[in-house]
């Protein structure tokens, strides 16, 4: 009986495998024409990724060096095709044939549901509702809050002990959070400071990202029993409850405020827009609230901290930025959008920070219709998971001399002209590009202007061999450490 059962199971498995191969014969045919590492039955190349998640980009870079800028690997039955050619990347991300997120984004769903970041059938409709809150006119209306919060941040940095180093991110994230709460979330200052479990949310966000990325990159965590036995499910449940409590409080406060008055169109936050649209369930509003909260305040804080850290370690660039800033903006008063556009040296440091610390290390999309790359010589089959290695593209020595060094001069006009314009895609491209690029740029640059007005930044450590942490986005593993002293006799934030 046991022999019969075993034989039956093996036969069933073999027939299922043959049926799968028959159903996916076109995919297998096209995949066979691509270079890539040898794959095992069932597991594919999953064993090649059994290491610390932070090493995944090095592994992919090794594959690129061995197999070229288009290659394939299998994760179980899932075909992944990596494309690193800049021209192909632009064409793919701009195509309506590649307009859905890849399967890796499914690991975000327990935390934020389907939507703008995680994809699914409703991402486009949800994005359309809130797009007006991110346009140039709305961002200009948010400018007074950016200035007020940035000035308070500058005062705090100005008061630091000049002999002691500190991680500037810990200060910056508090004020990007306040800025986001009072603009995109549409909250009053008082409500923003009293949100339920907000401090806890700021404290554990990085750990939550790490858990998600760990599950994305460790195939054995996809097995529910293993995930539970290792205590990961308990961690996930804690984060999900935290998100629910935090976003419920934001939505509750906004519903209460809307009973009194409706904000003007050009100053309306995303929560107001979702509530007033009537198109989302309460849970969907909470999920999108969390999505746009964390992708705004946390990402902006990382990049702003990176700019500040680079300026501290590059005194000649700090002097260039400061002098230009004084000429354009002056030592006091609010910073306007028009003034920010004139700060060319600051823009170069900002772009170098975006290159060095990618907002998204990897982008994954699902191919919904066959599409070709490399001048039509390679066809990507339907169902393929397209992988765009943004971090690796931004470190490609063909486009970036000495790519591991911090060099803002890469973005001098004469250097930009020499480089393929598609080699720099910090905000992605196409219909699924970064919704908050205008918002984030204005917020980050305003912060840097105010910080430089109040404080002279000094290095702590070195920029050589910066250790990176990969947890969806790329960040500085050891913190954004600097020293700061009061500039021009400013004491306690006042001159």
UniProtKB/TrEMBL annotation:
Heme binds at residue 434. GO terms for molecular function: heme binding; iron ion binding; monooxygenase activity; oxidoreductase activity, acting on paired donors, with incorporation or reduction of molecular oxygen. InterPro entries: Cyt_P450 (IPR001128), Cyt_P450_E_grp-I (IPR002401), Cyt_P450_sf (IPR036396), Cytochrome_P450_Monoox (IPR050196). Keywords: Heme, Iron, Metal-binding, Monooxygenase, Oxidoreductase. Its cofactor is heme. Gene3D superfamilies: Cytochrome P450. Belongs to the cytochrome P450 family. This is Cytochrome p450.
């Amino acid at each position: 009986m046991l022999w019969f059962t075993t034989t039956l199971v093996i036969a069933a498995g073999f027939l299922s495998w043959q049926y799968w191969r028959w159903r996916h014969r076109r995919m297998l045919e096209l995949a066979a024409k691509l270079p890539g590492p040898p794959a095992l039955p069932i597991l594919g190349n999953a064993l090649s990724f059994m290491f610390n998640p932070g090493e995944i980009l090095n592994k992919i870079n090794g594959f690129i060096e061995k197999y070229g800028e288009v290659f394939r690997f299998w994760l179980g039955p899932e075909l992944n095709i990596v494309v690193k050619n800049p021209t192909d990347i632009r064409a793919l991300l701009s195509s309506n044939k590649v307009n859905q997120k890849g399967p890796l984004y499914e690991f975000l769903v327990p935390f934020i549901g389907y939507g703008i970041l995680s994809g699914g059938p409703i991402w486009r409709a949800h994005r359309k509702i809130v797009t007006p809150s991110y346009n140039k006119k709305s961002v200009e209306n948010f400018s007074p809050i950016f200035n007020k919060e940035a000035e308070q941040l500058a005062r705090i940095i100005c008061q630091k002990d000049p002999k002691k180093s500190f991680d500037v991110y810990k200060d910056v994230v508090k004020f990007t959070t306040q800025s986001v709460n009072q603009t995109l979330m549409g909250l009053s200052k008082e409500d923003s400071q009293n949100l339920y479990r907000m401090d806890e949310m700021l404290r554990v966000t990085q750990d939550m990202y790490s858990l998600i990325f760990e599950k994305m990159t460790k195939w054995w965590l996809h097995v529910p029993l293993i995930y539970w036995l290792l205590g990961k499910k308990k961690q996930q449940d804690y984060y999900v409850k935290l998100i629910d409590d935090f976003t419920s409080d934001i939505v509750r406060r906004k519903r209460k405020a809307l009973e009194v008055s409706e904000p003007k169109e050009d100053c309306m936050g995303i929560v107001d827009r979702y509530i007033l649209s009537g198109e989302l369930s309460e849970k969907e509003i909470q999920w999108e609230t969390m999505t746009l909260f964390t992708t705004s305040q946390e990402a902006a804080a990382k990049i702003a901290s990176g700019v500040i850290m680079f300026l501290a370690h590059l005194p000649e660039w700090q002097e260039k930025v400061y002098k230009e800033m004084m000429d354009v903006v002056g030592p006091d008063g609010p910073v306007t959008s028009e003034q920010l556009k004139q700060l060319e040296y600051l823009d170069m440091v900002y772009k170098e920070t975006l290159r060095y610390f990618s907002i998204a290390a990897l982008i994954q999309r699902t191919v919904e219709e066959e599409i070709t790359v490399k001048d039509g010589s390679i066809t990507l089959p339907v169902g393929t998971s397209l992988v765009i290695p943004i971090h690796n593209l931004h470190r490609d020595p063909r486009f970036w001399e000495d790519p591991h060094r911090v060099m803002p001069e890469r973005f001098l006009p004469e250097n930009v002209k020499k480089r393929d314009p598609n080699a720099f895609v910090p905000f992605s491209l196409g219909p699924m590009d970064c919704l908050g690029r205008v918002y984030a740029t204005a917020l980050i640059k305003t912060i840097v202007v105010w910080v430089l007005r109040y404080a002279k930044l000094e290095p702590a450590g070195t920029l050589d061999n910066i250790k990176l942490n990969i947890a969806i986005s790329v960040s500085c593993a050891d913190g954004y450490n600097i020293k700061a002293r009061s500039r021009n006799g400013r004491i306690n934030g006042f001159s």
